[in-house]
Amino acid sequence: MTAEKTAMQAEEFRLFKEHVAESLGLVLEEGSRRNLAAKLWPRLEELRLKSFTEYYCYLKFSPGREAEWQRLVPLLTNNETYFYREAAQLSVLAQEVLPALKERKTARGERAIRILSAGCSSGEEVYTLAMLLLESGCFSWDWDVRITGVDIDTRVLDAARQGLYAQRAFWAADPELVRRYLTPHGDKLAVRPILRKWTCFAEGNLLDLRERLAGERFDVILCRNVLIYFAEETVKRVVDNFTALQASGDYLFLGHSESLSRTGASYVPLRFPGAIIYQKRT
Ligand SMILES: C[S@@+](CC[C@H](N)C(=O)[O-])C[C@H]1O[C@@H](n2cnc3c(N)ncnc32)[C@H](O)[C@@H]1O
Q: Which of 65, 225, 262, 264, by CA, is between 20 and 30 Å from 188?
């Protein structure tokens, strides 16, 4: 096979880039062209397609396009995650946000709390949140708690539902908490039923989240380490979706390298040592 045959032409890359930005939000950098071509070529061969133009048409117009898109997503996204990622933010959640939410809800006679992990990958963030809520002691058995993880990649969602993790997923977690909430399972650790009780996972695209989760409201949304890969106008669209899913005073957490400075008129930043979080304006 010649390198020329497997190369992706500039025009083909442009078409791909546009399609990916439109469907997934992700910005493909010019530098990723060769790598993308190398990852995709085996699939073209399987499908007996002769060029990336043919593959692009297959992806856009064939009856199997949705299944093909699901195959493609894992090649494009970064799924890196681990338990207790970005500890400073999680402390703010445990020490400031959860007590404030409990007080607000109790004053209104409400006993339900809803948290969304938007771009949850294989579930480490969702189970960390369940551990954090249990450890906070804020919400006893008679509270209706639900932590929902949403991701576009069905392969990572399957792993999240399975709840089995290798030791390396816990490098940032307190070993005592790991012992309390996970149990050995072969050479891995399995989440205990107490973590499953409050958690669930759903397939969804952050670009269409408002429609996907219509009618739901989230006291806290975490969307960490996802928006860094998106163009500014896409970040705005995603944040607009969050706005529609939250009430005044609700909280939004982004990754430490992500900011709403240019797109988040509906949220006010709240600054804490080592962490900035956002609160929906009144
Ligand atoms: C780097 S992981 C972040 C996981 C976790 N939030 C954390 O901070 O550890 C990014 C995840 O976002 C998901 N993602 C990317 N674009 C998405 C989209 N448009 N809709 C839903 N999920 C998306 C990817 O599939 C990936 O699992």
A: 225
The pLDDT value given to residue 256: 85
- β-bridge pairing 112-118 and 144-151: parallel
Q: Which residues contact 67 (CB under 8 A, 6 or more apart)?
A: none
CATH of region 87-280, choose from 3.30.230.10, 3.30.1070.10, 3.30.2350.10, 3.40.50.150:
3.40.50.150
Ligand 1 pocket residue status of 153, Cβ below 6 Å: yes
Residue intervals in the chain for CATH 3.40.50.150: 87-280
Atom of ligand 1 nearest to the CA of 82: 9
Quick one: pLDDT band at residue 282, thresholds 50, 70, 90? Answer: confident
In this predicted structure, the answer to whether residue 3 has a pLDDT above a threshold of 70 is no
Rg, C-alpha atoms of the chain: 21
- Residue 205 beta carbon below 6 angstroms from any ligand 1 atom: yes
The segment(s) of the chain belonging to CATH 1.10.155.10 are 3-76
Distance 80 CA to ligand 1 centre (A): 9
Closest CA to 250 of 126, 133, 93: 93
Report the nearest atom of ligand 1 relative to the CA of 74: 25
Using CA atoms, how far residue 186 sits from 163, 165, 177, in Å, is 13, 10, 19
pLDDT digits (tens, 9 = 90+) for 189-210: 999 999 999 999 999 999 999 9
Distance 71 CA to ligand 1 centre (A): 16
* 79 Cβ below 6 A of ligand 1: yes
Residue 179: CB atoms within 10 Å: 11
Fold of the 3-76 domain:
Chemotaxis Receptor Methyltransferase Cher; domain 1 (1.10.155)
Atom of ligand 1 nearest to the CA of 222: 6
**Closest approach atom of ligand 1 to CA 86:** 8
**Ligand 1 contact via 258 beta carbon (within 6 Å):** no
